[in-house]
Structure formats: C-alpha cells, structure tokens
UniProtKB/TrEMBL annotation:
Protein name: Alcohol dehydrogenase
Origin organism lineage: Bacteria, Pseudomonadati, Pseudomonadota, Alphaproteobacteria, Sphingomonadales
Entry keywords, A to Z: Metal-binding, NAD, Oxidoreductase, Zinc
GO cellular component term of the entry, any: cytosol
GO molecular function terms attached to this record: S-(hydroxymethyl)glutathione dehydrogenase [NAD(P)+] activity; zinc ion binding
Record PANTHER family: ALCOHOL DEHYDROGENASE, ALCOHOL DEHYDROGENASE CLASS-3
Leader peptide range in chain numbering: none
Domain (Enoyl reductase (ER)): residue spans on this chain: 12-363
Cofactor dependency: Zn(2+)
Organism this protein belongs to: Sphingobium chungbukense
Highest taxon listed in the record's lineage: Bacteria
Family: Belongs to the zinc-containing alcohol dehydrogenase family.
A Pfam family of this chain: ADH_N
GO biological process: formaldehyde catabolic process
InterPro entries on file: ADH-like_C, ADH-like_N, ADH_Zn_CS, ER, GroES-like_sf, NAD(P)-bd_dom_sf
C-alpha cells in the first residue's frame, strides 16, 4: 500500500516527507489508517539518538485512526473500528500476564529497535528498507502497521484526532499518579516539569483528591496553565529554589514528588523535597547511561524512589478510563493540544522544543 510518511534520516536532522510503501498486515498485525499522531519527547530523543533506534526511521508513537485491515488471528479489533495506538508488549511473559505490560522484558526490542523481532520492516521507500515498528506503530505516516496488543478500541463517536496522545505522554503522566504513586486524598505532591506529562499528572493529582499540588517549571505560560488545570501552587525555577520552597510550603516536605525532566539535578531536588516517608517517581527518559546521585542517609529515613514506564498502565484498561474522565470534565487534556498538518511537522518540532508554543503537538494526516 502507498503511504506518505515523515522520516528521520540522520541524527539531529529534520523530518523529511516522502512517499513510502507499507506491507499488508501479517499474523497478529493490524493496518490502521492514521487520523492523527501526537508528538512526544521520546520521538525527539530518538531523533537525537539518545536511544539507539537505527536510522533512517519512521517515528511516531501516539497514533490514532481507523482499522483498515487485520491479519490472521486478530480478534479484538476489526475493519472500521476506531483505535488509539499505544506501546507494544509481548502479552505472554509473567509481567504481561500479571497486568504489568509496561515492564515487559521485550519492551525495548519491540518498541525501539526499528524492526519486527524477526528483523523485518513493513516499510520501504523507493525499494529500500526503512526502519519502522517504532513503539509497534511508526505513526508519523498516513498508514501504520501495528500489533493487536497495542491497539485500543474506542467508541465509534470518539473524536479520534484528539486521542492519540493518550497512547504515551498523557497516559504516562496520569498513570504515574493514578496507577503508580496512588496518592491518598488530602495528600501533597510536587511535580517537576510542566510539559504534557507533568500537566497530565497535575490533572490526575487533582482528580485523585490531592489538596496541595505544586508545579515546578521555568516557563511562566506553562505554570499559568498548571494553575488552571489544578495546581494549587506554582514555582518558577528561574528565580526560586524549588526544593526549599516545597519544604516550606508543605511544612517539612511533600508526601509525593514526580520528576518528568530527566535531568539528574532536578531528580535529586524532587527526592529531597519530600519528607522522611515521601515517595518520588522518575518518569523522564534520559540518555542511555545517565547516572544520578542521592544522599544515602537521606534515603535511609523511609524515602522511596521508583521508576515508572508508560504510567504503569494496561492501555486497554487505562485509556478508556481517561476518555471517560475527560468526558466527565475531570481530565481536560484537550487544553494541552495544538494541531498541525503532517507537512508542518518541523514547525511542530520547533514549537515544542524551542519556542514552547506547543505543549502537545498533534499532527493531522
């Protein structure tokens, strides 16, 4: 099948738009006509080769669209179904069978290696193979080959162009609160970084009943939006020592903290801003090999630090929950989104990482 895709050809390069050919779905695969795809920070870190996805590659891992065709053995979706595409997992290992799909041992090869596990790719350009299968979808294209596991069926009347970011960034922020940290009603939380992940966490913290929600960032506009979405306090890290301010605001430290920045010094501040029994989640994806340090005696007194991938979510369960929350007015993630056409993808990149105009860019196909 002919398709149109955005391709990263070299480390740090711009996206190049070109015609490609996409295979029919194999056993267990689904061909999706992509309606839209969110742009996530992980797309840009792979562009910069923080993770070793081989290039040239079609990226994109927050796709949504309509099922066009299914391969043999697919039973959970059919042609005509609207779907959100999330991360890929094996579905058969102990982690997956226990409902911890985000911690599948095959997560890295299934999502980052640019190939099916047999080494093949479903995309070619002018007869040459192009790396694909990014998060099991490579949805910066008008058509995507996905696996059945990473397809989440949604209602026929769903606003499908809006929903793609639920597959990764927004799921990560909300799930880190609702599935991983699980703060008690009345508790306090400090969220470092007010991008799409951090702001999703703010909304989830409000929905979970946190009474003090502190957002930390260097962008005044994003801090203002954080207040609108539920933050009770904001800290401009350009002018204020966030750790000291949080300890003072909470009378000794927050119950919970979350770092979305992947900056070691910020993670240290997040941990140190909690009280003795506080818990911190690290969700930012740093370059492979990045290390950080903590004061061992500070940790000794009951503090906890945990990593969270994809919001510790089972996408087929959690994404419909987020859609229901949005419909009820409890999770207005649409306020984060700015739409672009696919051929504006490089403008969307600039607005996301340079000017900060876009918090969650969504590319319409």
């Amino acid at each position: 099948m002919d398709a149109y895709a955005a391709i990263i050809e070299r480390q740090g390069g711009e996206f190049v738009l070109d015609n490609v050919s996409i295979e029919d779905p194999r056993d267990g695969e689904v061909l999706v006509k992509v309606a839209a795809a969110g742009m996530c920070h992980t797309d840009l870190t792979v562009r910069d080769q923080y993770y070793p996805t081989p290039l040239p590659a079609v990226l994109g891992h927050e796709g949504s669209g309509v099922v066009e065709k299914v391969g043999r053995g697919v039973t959970t979706v059919k042609p005509g179904d609207k779907v959100v595409l999330s991360f890929s997992y094996c579905g058969t290992c102990p982690s997956c069978l226990k409902g911890h799909q985000a911690y599948c041992p095959s997560l890295f090869p299934l999502n980052f290696m640019g190939r099916r596990l047999d080494g093949s790719t479903p995309i070619t350009r002018h007869g040459q193979e192009v790396n694909a299968c990014f998060f099991g979808q490579s949805s910066f294209a008008t058509y995507s080959i996905a696996s059945e596991n990473n397809c989440v069926k949604v209602a026929d009347d769903a606003q499908i162009e809006l929903l793609g970011p639920l597959g990764c960034g927004i799921q990560t922020g909300a799930g880190s609160i609702l599935n991983a940290l699980c703060p008690e009603p009345g508790s306090s939380i400090a969220i470092f970084g007010a991008g799409s992940v951090g702001l999703s966490a703010v909304m989830a913290a409000k929905a979970s009943g946190c009474l003090k929600i502190i957002a930390v960032d260097r962008n005044a506009g994003r801090l203002e939006l954080a207040r609108e979405l539920g933050a009770t306090d904001v800290i401009d890290a350009n002018t204020v020592n966030a750790q000291e301010a949080i300890v003072a605001m909470t009378g000794g430290g927050a119950d919970y903290a979350m770092d979305t920045t992947a900056i070691p010094a910020v993670l240290r501040s997040a941990v140190d801003s909690t009280h003795n029994m506080g818990e911190t989640a690290v969700v930012g994806g740093a370059q492979l090999g990045t290390e950080f340090s903590l004061d061992m005696n500070n940790m000794l007194f009951g503090r906890k630090l945990r990593g969270v991938v994809e919001g510790s979510s089972t996408p087929q369960v959690f994404i419909p929950q987020l859609i229901a929350m949005q419909k009820a007015g409890l999770f207005p993630f649409e306020k984060l989104c700015t739409f672009y056409d696919l051929d504006q993808i490089n403008q969307a990149v600039e607005d996301t990482e340079k000017t900060g105009k876009a918090i969650k860019a969504i590319l319409k196909m």
